[in-house]
Amino acid sequence: MKVMEIREYGGPEVLTPAERPDPVPGDGEVLVEIKAASVNAADWKVRRGKSLAQHPLPHVPGRDFSGVIVAAGPGADLPVGQEVFGVCPTETEAAYASHILFKSELLGRKPAALSHVETAAIALAGLTAMVALEDTLHLKAGEKILIQGGAGGVGGMAVQLAHHLGATVVATARAENHDYLRELGVDQAIDYRGADLGELLGDCDAAFDCVGGGTVEGTFAALKPGGRAAFVASGATAPEATRPDVTSLRPAVSRSRERLERVTAHLEHGAWKPPVIEVMPLSDAVKAHELSEAGHVRGKIVLVP
Ligand SMILES: NC(=O)c1ccc[n+]([C@@H]2O[C@H](COP(=O)([O-])OP(=O)(O)OC[C@H]3O[C@@H](n4cnc5c(N)ncnc54)[C@H](OP(=O)(O)O)[C@@H]3O)[C@@H](O)[C@H]2O)c1
Q1: Is 147 in the pocket of ligand 1 (CB under 6 A)?
Q2: C-beta of 232 in contact with ligand 1 (< 6 A)
Q3: How far apart are the C-alpha atoms of 251 and 35, rounded to whole Å?
Q4: Domain range annotation of the chain
Q5: CATH of range 2-122+255-304; options 3.40.980.20, 3.20.20.70, 3.30.980.10, 3.90.180.10
Q6: Which ligand 1 atom sits closest to the C-alpha of 192?
């Protein structure tokens, strides 16, 4: 099989094409021929050696994919020929490849209405947005939510889901992304450059921060007393709240078929449309990482082996 692997930590140029033997599925495992794998912001952090999950080198990055089962081990609960999608456990990610060995029970059946490229684009981003808004913030209809980074992969899925759940949605992005935000369902778009979110908002029931670093203070400031904020770009634990009257939360984005099937159910119920997607060959992973690390991808980049 072909892969793009990291042999040493560093810049995008350390991503290197390589050939490896096709793995053979063991008990409960399947071999999936990958048709599309998405680029997540986590990938360049892994490549730089800055990820929370440490991997032995050489390492094949890539956290989510869509494809077809081409071999099944004993006890696998999905058959050869089944179209599936998956989100890798962080310690075993390896989706920048033509094939991946995977526990059958962790795979979801690919949504029939989406292409492989669209499915790969929504897998981890949709899962993360769903866990943050539904399982962590418990967002309700009629509430007001701020989404920091609304034009990105996770942020775009969060905007759409919050709108679908009946919330009033405010999101941050540069002005050139505001039309895109409105297409996704944003009620109020804010250019984060120079914006004081405490002054502009301060009345949000909830906030979801998909950017981290310099955005954290503004995320807390946007909340009303009693508000709750969730963070996925500020490390393994929630940042300490900068005020005593709000709650700071870190979603636990664990992988399971049940959760992937909830992602599919949201698609079927119209919560999500696929985001804007830039498709590139897997061999262009270096270019994809340059774009991702620059921090201004609109929607998603998807790699095709
Ligand atoms: N399981 C997990 O915990 C989990 C899962 C997935 C992702 N994550 C983390 O979540 C974060 C987002 O991932 P992603 O893949 O969605 O990222 P992404 O798609 O690469 O995000 C790019 C977006 O960030 C926006 N952005 C950059 N700086 C901003 C700022 N200061 N304020 C508001 N928006 C800003 C950009 O909009 P403009 O071009 O308009 O600036 C761009 O649209 C990453 O840190 C990732 O590691 C965690």
Answers
A1: no
A2: yes
A3: 29
A4: 2-122+255-304, 125-249
A5: 3.90.180.10
A6: 32
Structure tokens at 122: 């929504």
Residue nearest to atom 21 of ligand 1 (CA): 152
Q: Is the dihedral of CA 170, 173, 178, 181 positive or negative?
A: negative
Quick one: pLDDT band at residue 51, thresholds 50, 70, 90? confident
pLDDT band at 52 (very low <50, low <70, confident <90, very high): confident
Residue nearest to atom 32 of ligand 1 (CA): 149
Domains 2-122+255-304 and 125-249 share a fold: no
Give yes or no for residue 54 having a pLDDT over 90. Answer: no
218 Cβ inside 6 Å of ligand 1: no
Tens of pLDDT along 134-177?
A: 999 999 999 999 999 999 999 999 999 999 999 999 999 999 99
Q: Comparing C-alpha atoms, which of 131, 105, 109 is closest to residue 119? A: 109
pLDDT value at residue 216:
98
At 53 the pLDDT is 79
- CATH superfamily, domain 125-249, is NAD(P)-binding Rossmann-like Domain (3.40.50.720)
